[in-house]
Amino acid sequence: MARFAKFCKDMGFIYQSSEIYGGINGFWDYGPLGVELKRNIKEAWWHDMVRNPPLGPNGQEIHMVGLDCSIIMNPKVWVASGHVGGFSDPMVDCKTCKGRFRADQIAAAQCPLKPSKAPGQFEECQLTEPRAFNLMFQTYVGAVQSEDNIAYLRPETAQGIFANYRNVLDSSRLKLPFGIAQVGKAFRNEINPRNFTFRSREFEQMEIEFFCHPAESMMWYQYWRDVRKKWYSSLGIQSDNLRPREQGKDELAHYSIGTTDIEYMFPFSDEPQELEGVAHRGDFDLKAHARHSGMNEKFMYFDEERWNADAGTRATNSFKEWLKTNPPTAEVEKYQFFPHVIEPSAGADRFTLAVLCEAYTVEEVPDAKGKPEERVVMKFHPRLAPIKAAVFPLVNKDGMPEKALELYRQLKPHFNVFFDDKGAIGRRYRRQDEAGTPFCITIDGDTLKDGTVTIRDRDTLKQERVPMTEVQAVIAKALTPGC
Ligand code: GAP
């Protein structure tokens, strides 16, 4: 992983945060290529899940909307969600080396004094009993640092969605089932950040809370498990490396009726590791916020259509009136209930890391003279590739640079493209292979005669001659979702 992290740094994918001051554990920066890659991932997710989600199990349209909530919320949100009371990992300290370790991951950790052993296995280790360590970052809002002003950086984006559930319903006139999506930063004071960006203290999530009728919740749980697994495959993750795993009853979070982790075989581990959790959260969150805010009616869903359909069976069509003589029973719950929630919760940084691992390829290819040479190539799916195409003049004379610049300027408003007229053409190809650019377009002597260019495919190395006027369409086709 250290070698891979160096490659990512040298190429401008990921840098250690504040490196010039020795870094800070668990925080990372994205460089020029990394920021494009991560943006493409988030945009693909938003496009495929929010704007254009796959049809439902019965061919129905899926209704999704987005939100962008504040990172710091009223701390009561985190009391209601259970994070203040219980969002903790078991931690042990070593009195000898002063190291801190997650008790449940100690077997995979290294003793700082004796790295070949796990903490506790070296005779000098003096481990304490495990104690709960709350992972939320605490801060103060306002000038006074008092108990009353304590606030938290959100440890997940999900709660902003639950807190706004009623606002969204009221302002968008959605009906069940529907989903609310959010992409944004989350912060966890992880005890042992590790494996490059895999476990960071600041990271981004791509979360959906899908609200549905309790009777249909298992169908939607299945739907989202399938949709989310297929999404990773559609972006080039090989199915062998993707392992959906249903959590055992003993692993489930307190709120969960069932959770499937979509796991990925990262090269740093023999075991697949979580990319995303798809959780059936039941009515835990809406009920918790209803109870803590004292606003039941804000979180319950009134099925107006059903109520109106049964109008003939009642003396009044006012639900409030009718409730006075109908205390909460199964019949009332037919009309008013807490929706159940299915939550596909993915990590943008974890998936970026998986995409980098998946794309990284070292292979032998023939050089210009046909001799085998090693190349490093990032085989990104074209939708995710940071640079979509590079434009080169074969040589810097005979009008080729001007023609190449003309094509570059044509393509620039549509795609992230790169112009390179420096060095031997073979070297320019290799640089783009390392950046994962799917197409290299070369302007040569024939371009000036017949208006055609060569397009070189990054993976097959095949070069095709196409009219310059068709280049934009070739790139656009490769970027079309589903291709
Ligand atoms: N709202 C549910 C929730 O937050 P989670 O399993 O704790 O569930 C969801 O987090 C996803 O967020 C994970 O599958 C992972 O991709 C990402 N994630 C969680 N903790 C992370 C960390 N410390 N560093 C990077 N990504 C993390």
What report would you give on this structure?
This protein is α+β, with helices and mostly antiparallel strands. A seven-stranded mixed beta sheet has the order 3-9-10-16-13-12-11. It has a five-stranded mixed beta sheet with strand order 20-19-21-22-23, sandwiched between helices. Strands 5-4-6 form a three-stranded antiparallel beta sheet. The protein has 17 helices and 23 strands. The mean pLDDT is 94. Helix 2 packs across helix 13 (348-359). A hairpin with a 6-residue loop joins strand 4 and strand 5 (100-102). Residues 156, 158, 188, 190, 199-200, 203, 205, 207, 274-277, 343, 345-347, 349-350 line the site of glycyl-adenosine-5'-phosphate.
Quick rundown:
This protein has 483 residues and is an alpha+beta fold. It has 17 helices and 23 strands. Helix 2 (32-51) packs across helix 13.
Radius of gyration computed on alpha carbons: 27 Å
User: How many helices in DSSP terms?
Assistant: 17
Q: Class by helix and strand content?
A: alpha+beta
Average residue pLDDT: 94
Annotation keywords:
17 helices; 483 residues; 23 strands; globular; alpha+beta; binds glycyl-adenosine-5'-phosphate
Explain the layout of strands and helices.
Blueprint: H1 2-11, E1 14-16, E2 28-30, H2 32-51, E3 64-66, H3 75-80, H4 83-86, E4 88-93, E5 100-102, E6 131-134, E7 138-140, E8 150-152, H5 158-163, H6 165-172, E9 178-187, E10 202-212, H7 217-234, E11 242-246, E12 258-264, E13 273-282, H8 284-293, H9 296-299, E14 301-302, H10 304-309, H11 319-324, H12 330-335, E15 336-337, E16 340-347, H13 348-359, E17 360-366, E18 372-378, E19 389-393, H14 400-411, E20 417-419, H15 425-435, E21 439-443, H16 445-450, E22 452-457, E23 463-467, H17 471-478
Parallel strand pairs: 3-9, 19-20, 19-21
Antiparallel strand pairs: 1-2, 4-5, 4-6, 7-8, 9-10, 10-16, 11-12, 12-13, 13-16, 14-15, 17-18, 21-22, 22-23
Helix pairs in contact: 2-13
Bound molecules: glycyl-adenosine-5'-phosphate (GAP).
